Amino acid sequence: MDEPTGREAPLLSLDHVSKRFGGVAAVKSVTLDVAKGEFVSLLGPSGCGKTTTLQMIAGFLAPSSGAIRLAGRDLGLVAPARRGLGIVFQSYALFPHMSAAENVAFGLEMRGVARAERETRVREALAMVGLAGYESRFPRRLSGGQQQRVALARALVIRPEVLLLDEPLSNLDAKLREEMQIELRQIQRSLGTTTILVTHDQNEAMALSDRLVVMNKGAVEQIASPQEAYERPASPFVARFLGKTNEFAGVAENGVAHIGRLAAPAPPGLSGPVVAVVRPERLRFAEPGAPGLPARVMARIFQGDHWLYQFDTPAGAALMLRANDGAALPAEGETAALTWRAQDAALRARAPE
Questions:
Q1: What is the pTM of this model?
Q2: Rounded to whole angstroms, how far apart are CA atoms 193 and 257?
């Protein structure tokens, strides 16, 4: 597993943390170190254990085994309200009878912060999320995006050591979600707040995160930067979950992987049946006479700035994203030869059929 960014000791550590509900293992031995100021996303499909992991960090669930430490302190006996964490829920969980300012001030009141300081910090927090002048508005008079901002201000105003985000943007429409992703990342960078995001949205996680923790069936499949996980997936699940992918069957022998007429260096120790994982945008048409994987165009779909191609090849079905640059391209039913750079393929052993 990748080490956290930076050289300092991790701020947050999960040490072989597991959670069982009866006979069901919801989370299986998750180990993760998060550096101060890092933005980490727990990413995976519904039921993969990401929300359960977040709830154990927050203190809403107790681990069945393993330990969670914050700045070296074991959180096992620390109540949720005393962990120094800020939390933004999917539903925002605003108090409907309180104004925006009162919602943001609530955590400060519970901590006994003096009124003058409380009012200053609330004003600064609302301004930080773009809601200066909205102090007296009640949730029913705020849009979904504005409610999300109030929830974020409420979590940040207590100056948490770690900010926990549980699918905070999932209730927003696509355009507003993209805008809030940019704002959230800018706020996180400016404050340097260590942040853990739970999401099932691959694009959101890759846009926001320093590292991804890709989970499946309660276990961690890969911990890596977004680019590393996308371009060098550690498992077939990661490859497929993070976007469209091609998996070409071939054979490796004597340090060389052969996919049709194409050959590329194989990693040490890899021999026998292999799969080359290549993203659709990395496929190219081979130059005339150059080695390539024979392919027949099954479909060619116009998508504005690019074409989506579907091919049938001896090594399996293939997808290609080809820029609409005005060049002459093969039509449906025609044949072509496909190629890719060696560094654009992730090679792994092919599982027995």
A1: 0.85
A2: 45
